[in-house]
Design brief:
Blueprint (H helix, E strand, L loop, with lengths): L15 H24 L2 H10 L9 E5 L5 H6 L6 E6 L2 H13 L6 E5 L12 E7 L8 H11 E12 L6 H20 L5 H11 L4 H10 L2 E8 L4 E7 L1
Parallel strand pairs: 1-2, 1-4, 2-3, 4-5
Antiparallel strand pairs: 5-7, 6-7
Helix pairs in contact: 1-4, 6-7
Length: 242
C-alpha cells in the first residue's frame, strides 16, 4: 500500500503541487527574511558549497528548479554561465525573485519563469547543469521530476541538489527540538500561513535522504551519484551526472 504524500494543508481535493504553490504564494513576502532568521544565515554557505560542485566545469546553460526568490540562480553566476534559467510553481515567489534580480542588474544573465520539474518545457539535452535548492522534497512525483530533469540535461552534464536531511547520532536530538518545536513557532510569528512551517519538518521527515535518495537517482538513470553531509547532517548536497 503506497504512502500518502506529505502536503501542507492535508487537502483531499487539491494535489500536492497545488498546495505547495499556494503555500509559497502565501509566504513569499516573508520567505527570505524567515530563511535568514531560522537558518542563522547558514543557508548561504550551503549554496556556495553546492555551486563549488560545478564551478570548474564552466557551464554555459544552467537550469535552477524550484528557484523561489532566485538565491540559488544568483549564486550559480559564480560559475560564469552564459545564462541561468530559473523555474518555480509559485508566482508569488517568482515576483520577489524578479524584483531582486532587476535590483541587482542581473536580468541579462538570469531569466525566471513559471514551471516545474515534472513538466519542463525545454528540449532534450539543453542544460549543462541543473540545480535544485530545497525543492525536491516538494515534488509531487519525485521520480517523474528527476527523470524529466535527466531528459533536459546534456550528456555528461551534472545535477546538484541541495536538500534538508535528518541528522544522525547525538545531534539529531537537538535538531528535533529546534526543527519540530521552535521553528514552527518562529514561522507562526512572522508568517500568515501556519501550515507552511509545520509542513517543513513533516516533509523533511518523509524525504528519502542520504543513500536513500542516491538510490532513487540511480534507479532513474543517473550516474556517479554521491552525497555530502552538511552541518552534522542538517542538509546534504547530492550530485549526479548523465
Amino acid at each position: 500500500m503506497s504512502q500518502e504524500p506529505v502536503t501542507p494543508y492535508h487537502s483531499k481535493t487539491e494535489s500536492k503541487k497545488q498546495q505547495v504553490a499556494t503555500m509559497f504564494n502565501n509566504i513569499a513576502n516573508s520567505y527570505d527574511r524567515l530563511n535568514q532568521v531560522m537558518s542563522v544565515g547558514i543557508h548561504h554557505k550551503w549554496r556556495r558549497k553546492a555551486v563549488k560542485e560545478f564551478i570548474n566545469s564552466k557551464p554555459e546553460q544552467v537550469l535552477d528548479i524550484a528557484t523561489g526568490t532566485g538565491d540559488f540562480a544568483i549564486e550559480a553566476l559564480k560559475a560564469n554561465p552564459k545564462k541561468v534559467t530559473g523555474v518555480d510553481i509559485s508566482e508569488g515567489m517568482l515576483k520577489f525573485g524578479k524584483e531582486k534580480i532587476i535590483k541587482a542588474g542581473l536580468q541579462d544573465k538570469i531569466e525566471l519563469d513559471l514551471g516545474d520539474a515534472e513538466n519542463l518545457k525545454f528540449a532534450d539535452n539543453t542544460f549543462d547543469v541543473i540545480t535544485v535548492g530545497f525543492g525536491v522534497r516538494n515534488f509531487e512525483n519525485l521520480e517523474l521530476g528527476l527523470s524529466n530533469m535527466l531528459r533536459v540535461l546534456k550528456p555528461g552534464g551534472k545535477v546538484v541538489v541541495l536538500e534538508f536531511s535528518k541528522p544522525r547520532g547525538f545531534f539529531k536530538y537537538m535538531y528535533n527540538i529546534y526543527f519540530k518545536g521552535i521553528l514552527p513557532l518562529i514561522g507562526k510569528l512572522f508568517s500568515k500561513d501556519n501550515a507552511a512551517y509545520t509542513y517543513l519538518p513533516e516533509s523533511v521527515q518523509a524525504f528519502p535522504d542520504f543513500e536513500n535518495f542516491t538510490a532513487i537517482l540511480d534507479k532513474v538513470g543517473y550516474k556517479n551519484t554521491k552525497y555530502k553531509s552538511l552541518t552534522f547532517g542538517v542538509a546534504c548536497i547530492y550530485t549526479a551526472t548523465k
